[in-house]
Amino acid sequence: MVVQSWGDDESAPTHAWIRYSLSAGTSLREFQKTYRGLRDLKRAFGRRVLVVPVRLEHHEIELPDFLHMVEPDSGSYEIEAHWRRKRVDGGSHLLFAVESDLAEGGREDSRGLEVLDALESAARFALGAMTVVETRQTFHLELATGVQVPLSPSFRVYGAEEAPRSGPETMAAFLELAAASDRLAPEASGRLSLGMRWANIAFKESDLLSFWTAIEILAGRRGTGVYPVLAEAYALPRSQGQVLAKQLGIAYVYQCRGAVAHDGRAVHVDPRGASFLFAVAHDLARHVADLPPMRYAEKVMAGSRAEGLFWPER
Questions:
Q1: Which of 166, 243, 254, 256 falls between 20 and 30 A from 16, CA-CA?
Q2: Per-residue pLDDT tens over the stretch 233-273
Q3: Nearest Cα to 129, choosing from 168, 157, 152, 169?
Q4: Which of 145, 55, 36, 46 is nearest to 95 (CA)?
Q5: Full-model pTM
Q6: Does residue 121 sit in helix, strand or coil?
Q7: For residues 136 and 61, is the Cβ–Cβ distance under 8 A?
Q8: Dihedral sign computed on CA atoms, order 224, 226, 228, 234
């Protein structure tokens, strides 16, 4: 599929980064019908790319069974984990492919893998998590021989906050951002892909510090210096940055970030809070790509307060 899409001319890639991600939980025919517009995407972040709906075969995953052993005399207990294998239906997924070369094989710090993460990040936000469980496989593929160099697969369960939200508008926004990323100067394109990669990592782990890293990379500023850039991303004067940060709740999130980084306190991130920070990152991503504002974070936060979505443990 990848070889056919990219052709066999002399400039065709010799290798590709491949990832199966974003399971839809629907039949392949319905999946292909819904997401057929993705086939129009040919390039992003300076690389040839491919995003197509596919069907994965059955595979096995390992799940832990936890055994709680209580000590009668003291009342304390220990937890022992036993692993069991479960065969699951592969289901309908999106296949992401990014052109690569031999030198990038198996390297988690490669530019190709960064682009793969950024592309998945853009699709994840536009289309939602799409189902209650996502199965992900990532590997570096030699196109001529089919030899694979796998990375460790991961599995992630999502809550109701990340239900499918795809439609013509979200699909168009994803394609618009991906296409714009390919027109940027190398410095801006690199900042965009790196920031979106960190946003993707942060969302999977619900990690506050990783989210803030993504936000700072995309804004090109540190700390409260993010606020004026976010105002620009919302088509507001930079002087309105502090007011906007308080209205959205990003100023409170920055305080929580300090509780983690400086005080060593854990901060609980509600699923909707993770969606909010993911939206902030994508508001900034559109700004880096010089695209009109969509005010994603404002829409996600509507009717909520940041204090109810992030709280430091005492």
A1: 166
A2: 999 999 999 999 999 999 999 999 998 888 888 888 888 88
A3: 157
A4: 55
A5: 0.82
A6: helix
A7: no
A8: negative
